[in-house]
TrEMBL record:
The lineage of its organism: Bacteria, Bacillati, Actinomycetota, Actinomycetes, Mycobacteriales. GO terms for biological process: ectoine transmembrane transport. Residues 34-256 form the Solute-binding protein family 3/N-terminal domain. This is Ectoine/hydroxyectoine ABC transporter substrate-binding protein EhuB. One of its GO terms (molecular function) is ectoine binding. InterPro entries: Ectoine_EhuB, Solute-binding_3/MltF_N. It comes from the Bacteria. Pfam families: SBP_bac_3. Keywords: Signal.
Length: 281
């Protein structure tokens, strides 16, 4: 992890976000052939494996930016909660984290069209001794909950009056459960199942995924790539290429399927970024 941060710092120093002149960021990236993305190490969205940047979001970015004439995707590792501030500080060009599109985030940055639909799951000790099934059951049981700083599950916990333990990474959340410091770790189902499948000896189970309900309202969620608000040309070009992928299930799965994504994660075309940003769902 330390090595990843050092690599990120080096990349940030020469990032295209520092370029001057009157050209748009899209034109700068096309001239340089490199886009630098901020990521938080959350598998299977965007993470490092054997020193290489990989994941479903990264795969989408390589396809989309490649089609825009930007052949190389490089990464800067940051805690999830530091991604939007890092974007605003020009540490990277976009955020590659499958980040949930939420009204408060839309006030700080611009989101692409949805790339993934989300459901939540719970990581619990083997056998699920507290019989936890959803966020309400966590609140009612008094279970000690871990959530990732800046993640939507932290907002769910706050809305339900749960004082959750904040962790920086998914691995920290699993460690909290296996060490007994937390009874449960809440995150997207796709992430928790990836962790379980890639750590088969860990003494944990993952509950079936669910749609969280807050104040009687189902929290239908979707994630996308994050852009600075003044990089509209880049966002428009990105969305144009993204639509070609999300409108074609076979193409979509050819890019993200190897990371455990299925048609269930394919974004609903009626669920728009505009509605998600406005909270109209």
């Amino acid at each position: 992890m330390a090595a990843a941060v050092l690599v990120g710092a080096s990349l940030a120093a020469c990032s295209s976000t520092d370029s001057g002149g009157d050209s748009s960021l899209l034109e700068q990236l096309q001239d340089e052939g490199v886009v630098t993305v901020g990521f938080a190490g959350e598998a299977p969205y965007s993470f490092e494996e054997n020193g290489q940047l990989t994941g479903a979001t990264v795969a989408l970015h390589r396809e989309i930016f490649g089609n825009l004439g930007i052949e190389t995707v490089e990464g800067v590792n940051a805690d999830f909660g530091a991604l939007i501030p890092g974007l605003q500080a020009n540490r990277f060009d976009v955020v590659s984290a499958g980040m949930s599109i939420l009204p408060e985030r839309c006030e700080q940055a611009s989101f692409s069209d949805p790339e993934f639909n989300y459901t939540t799951a719970l990581m619990v000790p083997t056998g699920n001794p507290m019989n936890l099934t959803d966020m309400q059951s966590v609140a009612e049981s008094g279970a000690r909950l871990a959530t990732m700083t800046g993640a939507i599950e932290s907002d769910y916990a706050s809305s339900l009056g749960i004082d959750s333990m904040q962790v920086a990474t998914p691995q920290d959340g699993m460690d909290a459960v296996t060490s007994g410091r937390a009874d449960v770790f809440a995150l997207t189902g796709i992430s928790l199942n990836w962790m379980k499948n890639n750590n088969p000896d860990a003494p944990v189970d993952v509950t079936p995924s669910f749609v969280a309900v807050i104040d009687g309202v189902p929290q239908v969620g979707a994630g996308g790539t994050v852009f600075r608000t003044d990089d509209q040309d880049l966002l428009d070009a990105y969305n144009s290429e993204l639509e070609k992928i999300t409108s074609d299930p076979e193409k979509y799965l050819s890019i993200v399927g190897e990371f455990g994504f299925t048609e269930e994660e394919l974004p609903d075309p009626e669920l728009t970024t505009e509605d998600l940003c406005a909270g109209n769902i």
